[in-house]
Amino acid sequence: YSMYINKNIFKPASNAKKSFDLVFAGRLVPNKGLALLLEAFDNAWKMMPDISLAINGEGPLKNWLIKNIKHKKSGKNIFYRPYVKTLADVADLYNQSKIVVCSSYAEGGPLFVLEAMSCGLPVVSTPVGLMKEIVRNGENGFLLKSWDVKEMTEKIFQLLSSPTLYAWCSR
């Protein structure tokens, strides 16, 4: 695909410490499905209290996001970062994470998922954009059938609770 990913920047870093279980990066706007992401994370946190989520981005929903993070019990495990300065910093964030999650309702690529996948991350994604063509269930992550919180939670849990499946999907 002609997504123009800079493979000199977006590549796996073998020495990166995995500080975050999940990562989302993008503009904080309604079509990104942030409420879906937070609800799925909250459900996963109830099953895995040590799970963590890094969110990177700016946009009109920034204040809504910060408020929601503060009011959730799982919020202590959600780390919000505004936009980072360079693409190398974004790649570092991906390399510090285990799984990229796309909860969007509408997308073209989405480019952030493809960048994270270039860093070796498996994906859990809603059926948007190119994800329907790129994600192969159980091989490089999971493509959800719809925008269902329960299914998203299950796929996140499945990847994180099975070291063999995770290793297979992140190769």
Can you characterise this structure?
The chain has helices at residues 34-47, 62-71, 87-95, 111-118, 131-134, 149-161, 163-169, and strands spanning 20-25, 53-56, 78-81, 97-102, 123-125, 141-143. It has 171 residues and is of the alpha/beta class. The protein has a six-stranded parallel β-sheet with strand order 3-2-1-4-5-6, with helices on both faces. β1 (20-25), α1 and β2 (53-56) form a beta-alpha-beta unit. The longest helix is centred in the first third of the chain and has 14 residues, at 34-47. The radius of gyration is 14 Å and the shape is globular.
What share of the residues does DSSP label as strand, in percent? 15-25%
Strand order within the widest sheet?
3-2-1-4-5-6
**What is the radius of gyration?**
14 Å
**Uncertain spans:** none
Global outline: globular
Terminal-residue CA separation: 20 Å
**Which class do the helix and strand fractions yield?**
alpha/beta
Q: Mind describing the biggest β-sheet?
A: 6 strands, parallel
Counting DSSP H or I runs of 4 or more residues, the number of helices is 7
Instruction: Name the helicity range.
Output: 25-40%
Helix and strand succession?
Answer: EHEHEHEHEHEHH
Beta strand count: 6
Average pLDDT across residues? 95
Fold blueprint:
Layout: E1 20-25, H1 34-47, E2 53-56, H2 62-71, E3 78-81, H3 87-95, E4 97-102, H4 111-118, E5 123-125, H5 131-134, E6 141-143, H6 149-161, H7 163-169
Parallel strand pairs: 1-2, 1-4, 2-3, 4-5, 5-6
Helix pairs in contact: 1-6, 6-7
